[in-house]
Amino acid sequence: MYKLQRTLYAxxxxxxxxxxxxxxxxxxxxxxxxxxxxTIKTYVQTIHKDALKIIKTPPKHRPNLTLDEKAALQDLRDxxxxxxxxxDKGGGVVIQSYQQYKCEIMRQLNxxxxxxxxxxDPVLAFQNKIQQLIDMGLQAGYIDSNTAKYLL
Length: 152
Fold this sequence. Notes:
By secondary structure, this protein is mainly α. It contains six helices and two strands; from the N terminus they run H-H-H-E-E-H-H-H. Among the domains are: about 1-55, no CATH class; about 65-110, no CATH class. It has helices spanning about 1-15, 40-55, 65-80, 100-110, 125-140, 145-150; strands spanning about 80-85, 95. Strands 1-2 form a two-stranded antiparallel ribbon.
């Protein structure tokens, strides 16, 4: 709401000042622009009231599942013997026994044409490389110390 009001006021301000040139290096101006234009004020107040009315009105919706369907779905979720997952393709849902699911995971992980077993944990090497790159960026002036801390 504030953004709309600010945009309307800024557009009006720019129309009134033909010498206005925006600073190309600043994406948003910090100063707050005021206006005495009653049309804009009334418009913004009306939209604000309508928005508050919409927010305060509870949504009117009916569940798309019956109570029996909802209970059945909860029973499926609670069943530790099955796994419910989104399908890899097509946006469907796959329901498998836990045993089938585990066998499929192991089959894929043991496929040596796709995966290979690592002889060491590469995480420490990745962390060291990232640390080096951040230090280089800091020394070269590409990033400041706050950005470096954030990246770590």
